[in-house]
Specification:
Elements (H helix, E strand, L loop, with lengths): L7 H4 L10 H15 L2 H9 L1 H7 L2 H4 L15 H4 L4 H4 L4 H8 L1 H7 L2 H18 L2 H18 L19 H13 L17 H14 L1 H12 L4 H4 E6 L2 E6 L1 H36 L16 H15 L66 E3 L25
Antiparallel strand pairs: 1-2, 1-3
Helix pairs in contact: 2-4, 2-12, 2-16, 4-11, 8-9, 10-11, 10-13, 10-16, 11-16, 12-16, 14-16
Length: 408
C-alpha cells in the first residue's frame, strides 16, 4: 500500500493513489475477523477490538518514516512473466532470492513473505503472553493479508498508470467500499481453520487477486468508451498542480461493473485473517488468553454488546446499525486491560489521542458524515473539465512505484 499522509478526503482526490483498502477497508476487515474467531480467542480479541482496529492501519502510517515499508504491501507478479508468473516464481523466499536476488524481490514486492514473518512474530508473542505484541502483530498481520486480496497489489500497472487509467487503484479499493459498503454482504458463514501450510493460502490468495486484473481494467475501459471525459473526471488544483480523479458518476458506473468483485474480496479477507490468528495461537500451544484480561472473563454488559454485534453481522446490518468502527472515530479503549508484557508485566500505556477516522459511510437515516478538515491555509477548488490529455506510457518504460495516497 502506499503511504498515508493526508486525511481520507484529500486522498480521494490525489493522483497516483495506490494504497490497499485504505483506513476504512482495513479497519472493517479487522473487525469482521474478530467476529469469526472461536470462543477461546474471541473474548480477548473483542476486549481489545478498538485497539486492534486502530493499529490495523499502522503499516500505512509509518511509510513516511520507513523507506523499506512500501514493498511489503504488494508483489508485482507480471514483472517476472506476463504469461506464467506463478509458474516461474518460487514460493519459498530463499529459493526466490536464489533465482531473482533479494534486491529484485524488494523492488517488486515481498508481501507473501512479510505475511509469513508477521505470523511467526505473532506465534512468539502468544508464547510470551505479551499482550502488547499480540495486538501489534495481530493488527499488522491483518493489514498485509488484506493487501494480498487486492488485485492491483499484484501488478506493475498498480494504478493504471500504464494504460491511462491513473487513479483506478483508489477507486477500486477505497472509493467503492466507502460509498457502497451498505450494499455489500459482510457476513461469511465459513469458520476460520488451522492452516497446516499458511504459505499455500497466501499464494492462493495472490493468484486469485491476479486473476481479477483483466476485469479490473477492462470494465473501466468499457465505461470510458461511452462516458465523455467531462463526465468521467474531475480536476483538483492544489499546490500549483492539477490533479485528476474519477468522478462520482464514473464511480457509480464502475460499481455496477465490479462492485461484486470488490465485495467478494472484502468478504474473503476477514476469514483469512482469522485463520492466520488461529494458526499462530495453536502453534504457540493455545495459551489461555483469559489470563491476559482484567477482569479475566467478559461481564454481562460486554457479552450482550458482543452478541448484539454478532447478530447484526449475521443479518448483514452492521452498517445500517452503525456498529462498524470504521464509520466512527477510532480510539483506544477507555479502560484498557493491564498489559502483561513478556518480561515485567508493565501496565498499559495511557490512552492515546483520538485517531482521525475516515469519513463516515452513508447509512439509512444516519446523519451526514463528518469530513476531516483540510490542513490550514490550503485553498483548493474543484471543477469539471472536458479537456484531457492522454499520456500513455510504454510498457518498457515502467515508472517506479510512487509513494501512494491514502486510500482497502
Amino acid at each position: 500500500m502506499k503511504k498515508l499522509l493526508l486525511p481520507l478526503l484529500l486522498a480521494a482526490v490525489t493522483a497516483g493513489s495506490a494504497s490497499a483498502w485504505g483506513f476504512f477497508g482495513h479497519r472493517t476487515i479487522t473487525q469482521l475477523a474478530i467476529y469469526e474467531l472461536p470462543s477461546p480467542m474471541q473474548a480477548f480479541y473483542y476486549r481489545h477490538m478498538a485497539e486492534l482496529v486502530r493499529q490495523s492501519t499502522a503499516p500505512d502510517e509509518r511509510r513516511n518514516d520507513d523507506p523499506s515499508e512500501g514493498p511489503k504491501h504488494y508483489i508485482d507478479m507480471d514483472h517476472y512473466s506476463e504469461d506464467d508468473p506463478f509458474g516461474k516464481m518460487p514460493r519459498e523466499y530463499d529459493k526466490a532470492v536464489e533465482k531473482y536476488t533479494a534486491d529484485t524481490l524488494k523492488k517488486y514486492g515481498t508481501v507473501p513473505w512479510v505475511i509469513m514473518n508477521m505470523k511467526d512474530d505473532l506465534v512468539t508473542a502468544f508464547r510470551d503472553k505479551d499482550t502488547t505484541a499480540i495486538l501489534k502483530y495481530s493488527a499488522e498481520l491483518s493489514h498485509y493479508i488484506s493487501d494480498s486480496f487486492v488485485p492491483l497489489h499484484t501488478t506493475e500497472n498498480y494504478d493504471g498508470q500504464l494504460t491511462d487509467q491513473k487513479g483506478i487503484h483508489s477507486l477500486w479499493e477505497s472509493t467503492l467500499p466507502e460509498k457502497y459498503i451498505q450494499d455489500y454482504n459482510l457476513y461469511d458463514e465459513q469458520a476460520p481453520k488451522f492452516l497446516k501450510n499458511p504459505l499455500t493460502l497466501v499464494w492462493e490468495t495472490i493468484t486469485r487477486s491476479y486473476g481479477f486484473l483483466g476485469e479490473t481494467f477492462d470494465r473501466a475501459t468499457k465505461i470510458e468508451k461511452t462516458m465523455k471525459p467531462e463526465v468521467r473526471y474531475t480536476f483538483t488544483h492544489r499546490y500549483g498542480k492539477t490533479q485528476r480523479r474519477y468522478s462520482d458518476a464514473f464511480a457509480a458506473a464502475y460499481e455496477k461493473e465490479v462492485g461484486g468483485m470488490v465485495d467478494f474480496r472484502l468478504k474473503g479477507a476477514p476469514n483469512a485473517v482469522a485463520s492466520f490468528w488461529l494458526t499462530a495461537w495453536q502453534e504457540a500451544g493455545k495459551p489461555d488468553l483469559n489470563t491476559l484480561m482484567t477482569p479475566a472473563k467478559q461481564g454481562k454488559e460486554e457479552k450482550e454488546k458482543l452478541n448484539t454485534e454478532l447478530a447484526s453481522w449475521k443479518k448483514n446490518t452492521l452498517v445500517q446499525d452503525q456498529l462498524l468502527l470504521a464509520q466512527q472515530k477510532v480510539k483506544k479503549a477507555d479502560s484498557p486491560d493491564e498489559i502483561k508484557a513478556a518480561k515485567d508485566g508493565a501496565p498499559a500505556p495511557a490512552d492515546a489521542t483520538v485517531e482521525p477516522a475516515p469519513a463516515a459511510v452513508p447509512a439509512p437515516a444516519a446523519p451526514a458524515p463528518t469530513v476531516e478538515p483540510e490542513p490550514a491555509k490550503v485553498k483548493a477548488k474543484v471543477k469539471e473539465d472536458g479537456k484531457t490529455t492522454k499520456q500513455k506510457e510504454k510498457k518498457k518504460d515502467k515508472p517506479k512505484k510512487e509513494e501512494a495516497p491514502a486510500g482497502w
